[in-house]
Amino acid sequence: MTLSFDPVALRELAALLKESGLAEIELEEGDRRLRLARAMALPGALPSHSVVAAVEGQAPAVHALTAAAAQGSAAPDATDDARHPGAVKSPMVGVAYLAPEPGAAPFVAVGQSVAIGDTLLLIEAMKTFNQIKAPRAGTVARILVGGGQPVEYDEPLMIIE
User: Where are the alpha helices (DSSP H) in the chain?
Assistant: First the structure.
């Protein structure tokens, strides 16, 4: 079954993606669900935008934008985080998980000391959970992603000072 959506609304959502720097926007209403996501460009390639999925399913009857979209735009210091010498960046595209399983304590917390090789979080990519380990010893100064949040290649995940 094909769902139909207002093309003007789709263009407005795509413009919101571009203006805010968000990677994706997801909306749910009743049993209809729409997810718009920017296509990831390889280094040196031209950026592009595309609709990743429009799916019908059993969704709760709520209007939902990703948390970043609800706040208005991407954090202004996101580029500063990427340049920070203690930035731990994502080695892949996937979904970040801060704990080993739902309801469990997170691997690390802000202010916690870590050693080289300590597990900081997991990134699920293609149904495989990949441990992201501390590349250096130090103290977790900031955690830049939330549990269950999609992450992009080279996106800063944490700052270790």
Answer: 7-20, 67-71, 78-83
Residues of the chain with CATH 2.40.50.100: 78-160
Tell me yes or no: is domain 78-160 CATH 2.40.50.100: yes
Helix%, strand%, coil% for the chain, nearest 5: 15, 35, 50
CA 54 to CA 31: how far, in whole Å?
12
- CA dist 114 and 82 (Å) reads 20
- Integer distance in angstroms from the first to the last C-alpha of the chain? 51
Q: Hey, which bits of 76-152 come out as E strands?
A: 87-89, 94-97, 113-114, 119-125, 128-133, 138-143, 149-151
Which residue has 């300590």 as its token pair?
118
pTM: 0.53
What are the pLDDT digits (tens) for 99-141? 999 889 999 999 999 999 999 999 998 889 999 999 999 999 9
Identify whether the C-beta of residue 42 lies closer than 8 Å to the C-beta of residue 30.
no
